[in-house]
Design a protein that fits this description.
By secondary structure, the chain is mainly alpha-helical. The protein is 56% helix and 5% strand. It is built from 6 helices and 2 strands. Strands 1-2 form a two-stranded antiparallel ribbon. Helix 2 packs antiparallel against helix 3 and helix 3 crosses helix 4. The longest helix is centred in the first third of the chain and has 23 residues.
């Protein structure tokens, strides 16, 4: 059920679970994959400014699009694969859009699971999202 996500299998996993619509092209697919880079840049800027500058609406839009084109379950796994070290920032967004699973299984080739309840959440992000 949970295909292993490793560097070798990631692209195939993304292609297998991509649903960009009837007229989606490889360019559309690549643009959607690139959203992960944009999310990383937004998080880096947030951390570099001592957690003061977060374009949270833009970040939320990228996450919503990713969970729509890859489905919530698969999009969330792909996001966790790429951003697990910054997941305290991402987790509150996934909670708000109801795309956070109970566990992430078989990520980075490890035959284990990560209980999402054990991942902390950034309090500044929580406060920003409460303003919505």
């Amino acid at each position: 059920m949970h295909d292993p996500l490793t560097e070798e299998t990631l692209l195939l996993y993304c292609m297998k679970h991509y649903d960009g619509g009837f007229l989606a092209t490889t360019k559309d697919f690549q643009e959607d994959i690139d959203r992960i880079k944009y999310i990383k840049k937004l998080i880096t800027r947030y951390k570099d400014t001592n957690r003061k500058d977060l374009k949270f609406r833009l970040l939320m839009n990228h996450l919503i699009i990713l969970t729509n084109v890859f489905t919530p379950q698969h999009g969330s796994r792909i996001i966790y694969y790429h951003l697990h070290s910054d997941f305290d920032i991402i987790k509150p967004f996934l909670v708000v859009i109801n795309c956070l699973p109970d566990k992430y299984i078989n990520i980075h080739g490890l035959d284990n699971s990560v209980d999402t309840d054990t991942i902390s959440m950034d309090q500044n992000v929580i406060n920003l999202l409460r303003q919505l």
